[in-house]
Amino acid sequence: MIGLFIGRFQPFHNGHLEAVKWMLKKCDEVIILVGSSQFCYEKENPFTVGERIEMITSSLKAAGLWQKCQVLFLPDVQNNALWVVHVNSLIPNYDLVYSNNPLTRTLFEESGKKVESIPFHDRENCDGTKIRNIMGSGRGWERYMPAAAVEVVKRVKGPERLKSIGKGDKFEDVEEEE
Amino acid sequence: MIGLFIGRFQPFHNGHLEAVKWMLKKCDEVIILVGSSQFCYEKENPFTVGERIEMITSSLKAAGLWQKCQVLFLPDVQNNALWVVHVNSLIPNYDLVYSNNPLTRTLFEESGKKVESIPFHDRENCDGTKIRNIMGSGRGWERYMPAAAVEVVKRVKGPERLKSIGKGDKFEDVEEEE
Amino acid sequence: MIGLFIGRFQPFHNGHLEAVKWMLKKCDEVIILVGSSQFCYEKENPFTVGERIEMITSSLKAAGLWQKCQVLFLPDVQNNALWVVHVNSLIPNYDLVYSNNPLTRTLFEESGKKVESIPFHDRENCDGTKIRNIMGSGRGWERYMPAAAVEVVKRVKGPERLKSIGKGDKFEDVEEEE
Amino acid sequence: MIGLFIGRFQPFHNGHLEAVKWMLKKCDEVIILVGSSQFCYEKENPFTVGERIEMITSSLKAAGLWQKCQVLFLPDVQNNALWVVHVNSLIPNYDLVYSNNPLTRTLFEESGKKVESIPFHDRENCDGTKIRNIMGSGRGWERYMPAAAVEVVKRVKGPERLKSIGKGDKFEDVEEEE
Amino acid sequence: MIGLFIGRFQPFHNGHLEAVKWMLKKCDEVIILVGSSQFCYEKENPFTVGERIEMITSSLKAAGLWQKCQVLFLPDVQNNALWVVHVNSLIPNYDLVYSNNPLTRTLFEESGKKVESIPFHDRENCDGTKIRNIMGSGRGWERYMPAAAVEVVKRVKGPERLKSIGKGDKFEDVEEEE
Amino acid sequence: MIGLFIGRFQPFHNGHLEAVKWMLKKCDEVIILVGSSQFCYEKENPFTVGERIEMITSSLKAAGLWQKCQVLFLPDVQNNALWVVHVNSLIPNYDLVYSNNPLTRTLFEESGKKVESIPFHDRENCDGTKIRNIMGSGRGWERYMPAAAVEVVKRVKGPERLKSIGKGDKFEDVEEEE
Asked: What's the pTM?
């Protein structure tokens, strides 16, 4: 059985890794699809697709899960009605979609796919928005991510990037910044 | 005389149908252009272009107006200055644009087209935003739409779709939904 | 030495012109790059790329700076990580980037370019957002822009355009406007 | 029963009109989809989508078939595997596809749609390539097209356009033309 | 050491598999990048990106190489000068590019990457063009591909697809086919 | 009077420079528009838009014509019917288009612009195709280009680039090259 796990993974955190482990109890293979792949250096999307792929693959390797996983990515499609078809054009055979998001569930179910929920792991802390906020303004974000993913974030200077993004879009008129 | 009626028609409601009837008093033919055609399964744009076209054509047929109308569509153009030219590349000959929106009026007037206002029909209720809100959370939306359009909305499970859209974008991190 | 000055120039105002003069004390040539070139007839982006280029070139000519400048433009790139590379594909040789925006500075510095800050000129008034607001609702905007740029704004009826944009997107349902 | 008739219609000729008549013996409605809609002013694609739509609608009106037809269009999709899904996003309900092209037949059949062949009408002359060639270099093309479509071609100066297209792409270096 | 192996893999054949084996003598990991990912159902590009990824991953698994490989894909970029940067945005860290194509070699070398040639394996037969031709018109193509890739081609009816593609583009006028 | 000179300028040669001089006898200013700006590292389009802009500006500066010229660029537009409008969105005010190409002339004339022919200068040799061929395979191309443009071609290793492009597209299967 092949499972499909879809997310933006901004960043890939412990909750995601625990979810993969949980899926692999049932599935022989998990395909991890990095969505909104084209966005980066934005407040909600700080990391590039390459950085996210590297966070995921290095965390899976460190956890001994790599040979049972595959990582792919998908840029956004303007027309949501065509989104599942774009997913399917990348991954011809999968049996099960994992998602807790109602719209994702609806889109896959309308296309005839089976969808299952994912149990939460340390939901209070393993939350993308929260981790990005800590990363951009405080400290302690490292504890919520796999060590291999932390290393990627540090190498690309993630916290500094989040701080510079927070000061406004790159086309702000010069007079609006000091 | 050929009139052009532009809108997003999310959904097509009684106000739109009354507007077409009113235009046909003056025009021999009305071309109905479905704008923002590429968006769907979004809070402001729940219905696909195909669903909107079907709502419109079936309502016009039921009202006996089909042979005097034509329905086309247009995806958004990033550059607003080129929007009227994109419209014109689809519809070579039209005499009159119907719109109550100041920017649409400006864009067509600057291109030399004649623009007229549309009288409102039951403005308080025949309002896209209001109908979408009722559809997603309560009941009674059917009374503001032509019966043939209601049928399309029901067949594609519009109210369920609006509820699932309201819970957040399909790329929300798994921990943010239950 | 060739300097690169990046902005949206919505509109080109006295602060921008003073900045160019200041850069030309150090640089032999300044390349002015009009960003977000594809947007126009929007609240934050009222002017077309052609209008902005004309504002800039006519102001530079009037100030006797034209032969030391070049004006180019760049549409937005979805993937911010690729933005500097798109800039570089237009302008093969430049020595120095002028910007006060942290994200722009980060993106250029990560690509190995030298970045310098721009001293503010009459910062309180020479501010794009403020000038657009005055232009759309009051009077007196002319004093903050070079005379040649003012002429372009007047010829294209900038204040009227800003007023019509302020009433909502061109796809607002007809019932929502009067 | 709703039939779908797909083509480029460069131009719409007698063979196409006869095909619609033949389909309407079996179908209650025929949806005519203008493909490759974005191309025009090219040797293989001389007419704009608007001109093609006008040729078709005016020919159908003259033949008294308009109330049983609907005309839509579709730009090309780079990924052929997604093409049928784009078609379906425009036309939610159709029962039968008419096409003599093996690839089109394969794509629709693989998606589960029923496909039927179209009998040829005056195949030797009612041929898009042949009619474009005559239009660009000789005379007599009018006899192979419905009168209403001929009128559109004449109004937009089709023969002159085909002659100017034949002399090379608009970016040929100046020295290559006289 | 991480190697990068780029190709269209239309289809993935024995020569490609032998190349990966040869690279893994030197590299700890090989990233296989499927180029021109958006094209399919065309004479030169019959297989979808999903089908190609499946051919590659199943062949690598059967050969016991999967844990040392990663498969990604990239749509074409119009501007060749930006192509390597798009590759790099997907794969942040690689040491070596494998390619026998002069333009690919030039583009990577100009960006500062090290490039090496690939020794040929049964060059006369392990050739994409030749295998596609046999697949579309004769028999015996199976012997040039890994068994797991053959299975994918058979499941998606590759030979039938190549035959139907060979009869012309999906927008050929109806009169041109029988 | 402002003249518009459109071309691909692959590369900018003596014929182009002579044409600008000739236009400036009549015009106060010439805007040089680099078309097909997105293509490069291709047989017909070897140079990037940045390289072409640099060839043109450095040649004009050396010839003392820079202050009377402006260089802009435009990516191709799929829909030729919209091409002149895209040009106009960049260059709001020009009086005269210079072109010897029938399709370009038709497109501008249909939009109401005045078009004039350009006298040829050493037509036999000042020909883009011919110069590219010499550059890729022989020698002596330098004599047909302004010295400043020659310098740009040499710095970016134009002849080597043309040789590597000539060996086939970057996605050729590895077995097809040696």
From this structure: 0.92
